[in-house]
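I'll show a typical protein example:
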Amino acid sequence: MKEKEADVIVVGGGPAGVISAVTARRYYPDKKILVIKSVGRGVIPCGIPYMFATLEKPEDNAMSDLPLEKSNVELLVDEVTAVNRQGKTVSTKSGRELAYDKLVLAHGSEPVVPPVKGIEKKGVYPIYKDLDYLKAMKEEIRKAKSVLIIGGGFIGVEFADELAGLKGLKVYLVELLPGLLANSFDAEFGQMALAKLKAKGVEVICGEKVEELTGGDQVTGVLLSDGTRRPVEAVVLGIGARPNVKLAEAAGIDLGRGQGIWTDEYMRTSDPDIFAVGDCAGKRDFFTRKSLPVMLASTATAEARIAGANLFQLKVVRENKGTIAIYSTYVNGLVLGSAGLNEATAGKEGFDYIAGEAEAPDKHPGGIPGMVKMRVKLVFSRQSEILLGGQVSGGMSAGEVINIIGMALQKRVSATELETLQIATHPCLTAAPTMYPLVLAAQDAAGKI
């Protein structure tokens, strides 16, 4: 029996779900909108590592329901267990049946738990976006004398950097690939992150596999593929996540060829009344249209704005032309940013490319206090001169320079256009106008073309 009706039901209370609902309210002020989330107290995904030392208390990273309240969006804490497409209802764990006109699936992803012997032991922590779970995890890790982080991507590197700041805690990081951040950066940028972690006391082990987590009910050690062992009292699984597609699959919604729920450029699934956004939705590369395993809150909210605006009508042409995979991270004072293709991925895909590089002080003159060297690397198509990707390292300003590169990618900017970029500069804020590294990198590439 239908208990309650809503014009729009959003499944999921993370960034994608919240922004879908808030955007829908903006475009459809007369519609009744309901968000259903399974976790009572969620967290801001990107802030999870910083709950363990940087933030004064875990609650400082709690996901606020205030945007929903301000937008007159109803909220229900329950778990959606099934979607009835024919009846246009969702069923919940508590036994409710709720009707919808439009449904948005924004229920995220699940952490990857590798098939390692002993992975089920106490003290092994996948990363769940649940405040209460993370608070308990923090308390247990703070009691430990040693912790192992499995995975040298963004999650693993950020956790290692954060936990290394805890007094008396020995931190190990194991990555199967030869270097850190290898799926997003060329090797020289990964080496920068490696050096920063080592300087902070992290024992980084690349090119090795975790064979077994040893101990009784509680983990006490790790056996690596080279036969060496380390004593560990806690393990953080920083390997990544996979899209949560169980609801969609059970409802007969197309999943496409890659991971995640298939959507068109307006985030519509194979059912015209059901949308999918965020981690549960499939991603396609901006340049190749291949499936791309990118799960970012920034990407999720961009998709959510597209879906929320176009639920009942395609009011504005808001095409999702693909994912540029734009990242930034912070490791012991070093900012790293990546967007689009790097040299390794461009070569793997068969692009005829050239790369331009530059390094310059991020303030001018170089003696200004707080100056940090910024390095920029840009990858262009040799024939068309169109930007394919970029990487940045440096101080805090690098976090915004990568966003400039992201905009340039989406607008298909050429090397010449970046070389003649008009910029605002100030001694305390930016590199010199004569030595702006983004422009210099474009010039370097243009000279090679």
